[in-house]
Amino acid sequence: MKRLLAFAVLVLLAGGSAWSHQQGPVKPPPDRVIKRIPTESAPEPPPIPVEELIRRVTERENEIIRARNASSYQVSLRLQEFDDAGEMVGEFQMAKDMLFAADGKPSEKVVRTSRSTLTHLVLPSEELADFARIRAFMLPSISLEFYELTYAGKQPLDELSTYMFRVRPRRLSRTHLYFEGLIWVDDRDFAIVKTYGKWVSEVEQKTGFEPFVFFETIRENVEGKLWFPAFLRSEESLPAGAGPARIRLTLRFTNYKTHAEPRIP
Q: Is residue 14 part of a domain?
């Protein structure tokens, strides 16, 4: 039976209905201020060697990435502004289909877009739509040479029991973004079910995603075995003349359709 990930702290979801493939406007999860990575602590050792655990996680990621690269799906973007009373005062929405092509080259088709009523994040619609290109962190085995993983203990995640790892880049680059943060791994099938962190480079705060810094991604179990990204979320406060403005970004990935003969990334 299809297992649906519901991250209770975020209160992103409320039962299976939150993961339904809706075609209407994006419905973001309730308020959640994303600001920092938790401090380190000394965990109990895992039941299997950490090196073996990491190997199983990355092999599982290889499978998931191959399947997602051979899938079509929809990406829905919602940008919202809130005043100091918590009332939404502006937003922008768009959605596009990511289409699978037989030659392995993805194509995009915008299916809807709205007029921006944002007053603090004042950008053309084309530039606002670029926020839909923010990628969810994934960890194939080939990327291990670029990252240092540290086991951080076991942690319950709604109905799941998970292993948590800290992820840090081994080195930084001026031309490439690397992930720094936390990942949560299901302890039964070794799939990553949640990530939290930021994209970093040698040039501080120059990621192309400004003003957003920290991102939280929740994955959905598709077809009973493939944990694909479902929600990506970030929130920041911006200085403003009449007071600080809260800016929220929500990406929702829906309507996954996995095709035969997935291509290796």
A: no
Predicted confidence (pLDDT) per residue in 158-201, tens digit: 899 999 999 999 999 988 999 999 999 999 999 999 999 999 99
Q: Spell out the residues 6+ positions from residue 265 whose beta carbon is closer than 8 angstroms to its own.
A: 65, 66, 69, 140
Between CA 86 and CA 245 the distance in angstroms is: 10
Query: Is residue 73 one of the residues assigned to a domain?
Result: yes
What are the start-end ranges of the H helices in 78-138? 125-129
pLDDT digits (tens, 9 = 90+) for 203-241: 866 677 888 999 999 999 987 789 999 999 999 988 766
C-alpha dihedral, 16 to 19 to 24 to 27, nearest 10°: 100
Number of structural domains in the chain:
1
Q: Is 21 inside any structural domain?
A: no
Q: Does some domain include residue 33?
A: no
**Secondary structure in 3-state letters for 2-51:** CCCCCCCCCCCCCCHHHHCCCCCCCCCCCCCCCCCCCCCCCCCCCCCCHH
Place of tokens 């009449």: 242
